[in-house]
Amino acid sequence: MTMSLYEIGYFDNDFRTVAKEKNPTIRADENRDWLKKRLFSIISVRIIITIVLFIFLFNRSDSHQQILLSVLIAILIAGFYFHNTLRSRCNVVTYFIIVTARYLIPAVAATDSIYYQSMIPFMIFIFPLLRTVEHACKDKYSFPAIKKIVRNPDVFRVKWYIALTFILVIVYFLSANSIILNFVALSTYFLIYRAATLYVSKSTRILRTKHQSYNWDKDEK
To answer: What is the 3-state secondary structure (H, E, C) of the chain?
Structure first.
């Protein structure tokens, strides 16, 4: 459901937003004409999938889940519209909104509402906020201070999860909440994964795919 909405947002960007840009990022360039002819059908199918899955989840959820799911889906749709319409530093905010909604929707659907108070902040810190900080490093936003802090996104992610895991461990010992312990385990998993990825890329000299809009080359050390 979430990915169907995400794909609609991408289509909106590729066929509406790019018309207003001087140097647009064109996806599926080779199949563009084929997609354009079938765009209405493709989007319609994804809308139907979204509606069917939403009804299914809605009927299986409690009232808190129903309200939050409805709000998050509305936020995701509105977020994508403004993200594809605005062309300024405001896109950092809209990016944070759509990424957060993307990760919260399945988490909210799969989690009992009694855990939302701790789960939602954790879900925001575990990836959406991190990814937004990295997104803000794009040259077009002109945030040199943020880019100077991040420098190397692979190393920055390891540092981020070290800090997050450390904070969660402290919170766990202060609260003795078993839910926080689950968050510690998940954060530790992300830390190990990112550390291993960094190690492999450095030791085998595998170069990470670098998007030209970030221009990391002169800043990575």
So the answer is: CHHHHHHHHHHHHHHCHHHHCCCCCCCCCCCHHHHHHCHHHHHHHHHHHHHHHHHHHHHCCCHHHHHHHHHHHHHHHHHHHHHHHCCCCHHHHHHHHHHHHHHHHHHHHHCCHHHHHHHHHHHHHHCHHHHHHHHCCCHHHCCHHHHHHHCCHHHHHHHHHHHHHHHHHHHHHHHCCHHHHHHHHHHHHHHHHHHHHHHHHHHCCCCCCCCCCCCCCCCCC
pLDDT (tens digit per residue) in 87-144: 899 999 999 999 999 999 999 999 999 999 999 999 999 999 999 999 999 998 999 9
Q: Please provide residue 138's backbone torsions phi and psi, each rounded to the nearest 5 degrees.
A: -60, 140
Confidence grade of residue 27 (pLDDT, cut at 50, 70, 90): low
Give, rounded to a whole angstrom, the gap between the first and last alpha carbons of the chain: 40
C-alpha to C-alpha distance for 92 and 97, rounded to whole angstroms: 9
- Binned at pLDDT 50, 70 and 90, residue 23 comes out as low
pLDDT of residue 184: 97
Q: What is the pTM of this model?
A: 0.86
d(CA 107, CA 119): 8
